[in-house]
Design a protein that fits this description.
Layout lengths: L2 H37 L8 E4 L3 E4 L4 E5 L3 E5 L18 E7 L2 H4 L9 H4 L1 H7 L5 E6 L7 H12 L6 E7 L3 H4 L2 H4 L6 E5 L2 E6 L7 H14 L4 H18 L24 H23 L3 E7 L9 H10 L7 H12 L3 E4 L1 H11 L17 H20 L9
Parallel strand pairs: 5-6, 5-7, 7-10, 10-11
Antiparallel strand pairs: 1-2, 3-4, 8-9
Amino acid sequence: MTENSASSHRWLQGWRGNLLLLVVSLVLCVAVAELALRIAGKDTPEFYRLDPDVGWRPRPEVSGWVEGETETFVSINREGYRDVDHPLEKPANTYRIVLLGDSMTEAVEVPLDDTYWRRLIAPLQSCRTDGKAVEVINFGVNGYGTAQEYLTLKEWGLKYRPDLVLLAFFTGNDFTDNSLALGKHEGRPYFALEDGSLDLVRRPGDQPGFEAKERWLDFRARTIDDIRLVQLFRRASRNLRNALKYRFSPQTRTEQPGLDNAVFRPPATPAWVATWNVTEALIAATADAAHAGGAAFALTTLSNPLQVLPDPAERLRVARSLGVDDLTYPDRQLAAFAGARSLTDIPLVEPMAAYAAEHHAALHGTDPQEPIGHWNTLGNQVASEALARGLCEAMAAGRLAPPAR
């Protein structure tokens, strides 16, 4: 071997050795980082999967930490919703309630037993006179609009043969969630009114590329979702996307990303007129589906953060800045709509606003100085108390008796 070839051979061996050392070092670093994340208990799995009918649903039997307004451990039941497991067959001597709603109802900001619907069970049990046990089954999902809740009831909720279907309506964004023009969410189903009847004009599973995306996300969930470094990268990517999406949106009590203050005024554009009409039709269709399934129906309107600011003077200032006398327009209109159709309606805004003012308490968010976001633990408690009173009064008046099956 010549001197040059020997030198080249030594260089090649050195290059390979350095590369091997680099690879081993990287593997060790990744392994140590993964181990550290596992020891820290930071399991933050992907909680949602695509669904061709409703757009997305929680993944069944997934549990882990949700990091958002708070850090909460969340478990999804075998049906694919945030709740304990419930038998399909209703237990004997049981009054069963199926609950529909969005992120306010999924309520990942608080532990399960602190959600308003879990807190409902005891007071409803006390006010019933027939001795039946009360069971509440949650079908609330983050981001859902009334169309998704209506489809969820027909596909999954009614098979549990409820005695009552309770629709929890969040005025902050449920109207815009029912309108492609206002909500601009490509992954939702949308209905339109055609000759006075609801027509499903957009189904997520029929959109180009849906099946390929669904297969990829399912594959990713089965193979790499449990890797903590992958979870960390996904959280960082999501936070960056949200920061870019809302970089020009001031997150203050009067301008909250994802909410539209136009809801506090009568509809003034064709898009808002259309979404009000579609929303009311979807509520009526949900009630009809409940009645057809042998269940009673009730509507409850949840509080919007601005409606229950601890300072009534601040609420008035916000209302005047929006050109209205108060912030209850959507609740009053939905109550009138429900009354005209003999539907039970339980608005929560008035009792919750009264509590917030009397105790100067923030019912939304984690910062008492900036009470925006979802209900906190106290907000869930106050909401459950107000809703329980309304439901008990309706039960006593015979307005929530299931129709004959």
